Structure formats: C-alpha cells, structure tokens
Recover the amino acids of this structure.
C-alpha cells in the first residue's frame, strides 16, 4: 500500500514539474495533480493498453515513436476528464509525454529499493 501511495505522489509531482517546463501543459495545484495522476493512470491502464496492443506493429515499425503519440493522446484524454489539468494542443501533449516519461523514470530511479 505504501508503494502505491508513493507512486501516486510521485506521479502527481511529475505532472507538476512537466506543467512548469512544458508550455501549454497546465495543472492548477497539487490536489488537481493528484486527481490527474489517478485519471492518467486509469486512462493509460485501460484505453492506453488496448491501443498499444492494437498498434504494436506500428510501434515496432517506428522504433517506439508511435508509443509517444499514444501517450500524448492519453494525456489529452485525461485532461478532458480531469478538472484543473489542461493540455492545450497535440504539440504540448507530445512534448509533455516525452518530459513526463523522463521525469517518471528519474523519480522511480531515485526511490527504487
């Protein structure tokens, strides 16, 4: 349970950091980031997983670049579903997906056991 809470808080902190760095990517506060982290996680684990499975040949063909496109679309969808979290345009979503992946990787590395 503690691991889940730590991942949730780190995901929210990642969203806040991405909002600070990427123009067009906005989070209104930490509570909005916590809610957005849940929504992003749910969207990625349901619809994102299905899309990644269906488009796997395209992901292989593009050497993983299409994975970022799917993540960008999932971020845009999560922004529609989550109050206080907005992504303005596909460019911001795409850049946000890249930065979010890197920040999450860094945070997970810092707190790994």
């Amino acid at each position: 349970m503690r691991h889940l809470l730590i991942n949730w808080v780190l995901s929210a902190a990642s969203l806040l950091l991405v909002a600070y760095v990427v123009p067009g990517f906005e989070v209104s506060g930490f509570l909005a980031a916590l809610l957005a982290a849940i929504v992003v996680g749910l969207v990625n684990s349901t619809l994102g997983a299905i899309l990644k499975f269906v488009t796997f040949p395209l992901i292989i063909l593009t050497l993983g670049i299409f994975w970022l496109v799917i993540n960008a679309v999932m971020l845009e969808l999560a922004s529609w579903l989550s109050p206080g979290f907005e992504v303005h345009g596909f460019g911001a979503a795409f850049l946000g997906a890249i930065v979010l992946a890197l920040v999450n990787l860094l945070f997970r590395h810092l707190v790994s056991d």
Q: What stands out?
A: The chain has a mean pLDDT of 90. The first helix runs from residue 2 to 21. The chain is about 80% helix and 5% strand. Residues 16 and 33 are 7 Å apart (CA to CA).
